Amino acid sequence: MLMIKRLKQLRFLRNKVVLITGGSEGIGKALALEAARRGAVVVVAARNQEKLQEVADRCLILAGRPSFAFKMDVTDPDQVDEVLDQIRHQVGEIDVLINAAGLGMMDAVVDQSYATMHKMVTVNFLAAMYLSRCVAKQMMNQGYGAIINVASLGGKIPTPNSAVYSATKAGVIQFSNILRMEVADYGVQVLTVNPGPVATDFFKKADPSGEYMAHLPQWFVIAPDALARQVWDNVGYETREINVPGYTTGLAWAYQIIPGLGDWAIKKFFNFQQNKHNL
């Protein structure tokens, strides 16, 4: 009951400080703009300063409140520490952290280099863990807060050519499950967001061939603005996880029960054949 009372403070974002990594584009950008519409003090962080500033300027107009852009490489812990310190001194204590920075490369495992694997693990998984760890300490001290980790439906339901990416997202899901238990008594919500394919430029970089998206019906692709609204509608509550589209919760459950049938169906859907790779 005490946790619920503390979390209620976050149901209305007016004047709340929201830090979003990966806020220059894609899901992070959509989450930033929606937070601004709800009156938050938005802080976006990413590597592209020009794009970041554009988002911050739009947030300023939408919220009528100061918005901030900090250039930050989430894979550099020293830089993360420095930026977090700047935010606390220039903006204030963080009320909501969203780990939305992400990287994906849609290739078969045998076709991926160690460097590519390492980069995905570092950006998608290790950076989210480190930022969560740093900000959780502050939120526990202030007695409330929310940490939102953007994982993926791929962390629950496997698809061909996404092994490393999906593994990082599965790691984010399990990390969030355990972090949630550790901080719940301090009034801190940990929310995991598992979207399916979202209509952003993500797949243009992850799969330049376009094969992955070509296999998906248009109705299955999620609008980033709708996803952002759903996320913010669940902040300040005891919601543990959001799977989008909602029916994918049942699909993930079914895969755990009958994985063999699931593998067959998924490979059939994506028209995947192992022998197309040169081993």
From TrEMBL:
Native organism taxonomy: Bacteria, Bacillati, Bacillota, Bacilli, Lactobacillales
Keywords of the record: Oxidoreductase
Listed EC numbers: 1.3.1.87
Keyword Cell cycle recorded: no
GO cellular component: membrane
Name this polypeptide is given: 3-phenylpropionate-dihydrodiol/cinnamic acid-dihydrodiol dehydrogenase
Enzyme kind, highest EC tier: oxidoreductase
Pfam families assigned to the protein according to its UniProt record, in alphabetical order: adh_short
Gene giving rise to this polypeptide: hcaB
